[in-house]
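#dry-run=false #mode=assembly
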Amino acid sequence: MSQGLAQGLEGVIAAHTVLSDVDGAHGRLVIRGYAVEDLAGATRFEDAAHLLFDGFFDDLPADLAQALGAARVEVFAQVAALDEALAKRDPVEAMRALLARLPDGDDLATALLLLAAPAVFTPAVLRVGAGRAPVAPDPALSHAADILRMTRGTPASDAETRALDAYLVTVCDHGLNASTFAARVIASTRAGLTSAVLGGLSALKGPLHGGAPGPVIDMLDAIGTPDNARPWLEKALARGDRLMGFGHRIYRVRDPRADALKAAVRRLSDAAGARPGRVVFAEAVEQAALQILRERKPDRPLDTNVEFYTALLLEALGLPPSSFTCVFAMGRTAGWIAHAREQLAGGKLIRPQSVYVGPGVRQAA
Ligand code: ACO
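#status=ok
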């Protein structure tokens, strides 16, 4: 390794931020002064977005709910561009294509359209992909309630709405993760918020970042019974696979968001009386995975990350695994926008250096 080169920029500090603090040693996440477990379950998504945007837009209204509802309606006009071929693609790719149609800008109006976009496009992509007509937004509903209604075509219960709010709030910001860093790099060139959010989404979709929760469901389904957990997981590791939903660049202990989401799944299944056995089964798989990872990697603490219980919560809400990354983006877009604005306020272009290790100068033929 070259002198001064941190692989994957591990341990490198690349920004000062007032938005969130990820304490990897103690397993704590603080969002603008609030512990994530206190915000999740007690806060609507629009209020968490307001918390993140505060100080970054001069014209921020006291309550974002109405403006965000209006933005959902405005963004829905773009759904007309969703043809059958696009709807057949992976939902995150279809959503990314629709998002790219929005104009660039740095103002609050652009920010609200971007915040509304994944919430409106994802249900439309899912419905059109299944041969059904998209459902128009209802601006009078809360953001989470409207997402569920646009997805299913029928109103969601209060418990379901609270559960989706808990999820969106839990993932709304998380320090300088890969997608947020990508968004900040793009914002630093003054390309505009839409470009920054598109870059964030493109980084999010990879399985080492926000693409993990869908495969968590595949893993649980393939394991099937608690007895099969250990042999299945051992075989997966022997193949060189990574166990989805485990490990983290920053956390050396349990990701605090895992417990915030586990509590939300429990509240939801208590309210609906639905699939409580699924959580018990997932816990058995989790324990087996943690034990095997400890045995195989005694020097590298690998614990449960946010994606494991994300998968269970979104599944309990009836959302298909193919949509999980899009739902993650519904929450994280708030963080990308706030970070992009913070980066712009700092004003400096992000432009690191590389060390050339290629061939010496030679004669062109
Ligand atoms: N399963 C098996 N082995 C693992 C796992 C895992 N989930 N995570 C890390 N390891 C191993 C690696 O193979 C590596 O072993 P090696 O040193 O023998 O090569 C060692 O632990 C260190 O791993 P790194 O890749 O260096 O750790 P890094 O900090 O770069 O990776 C990451 C973090 C990408 C999240 C990793 O833990 C992983 O791939 N997890 C599975 C995918 C996942 O759950 N992604 C969602 C992350 S949360 C989020 O982004 C919202």
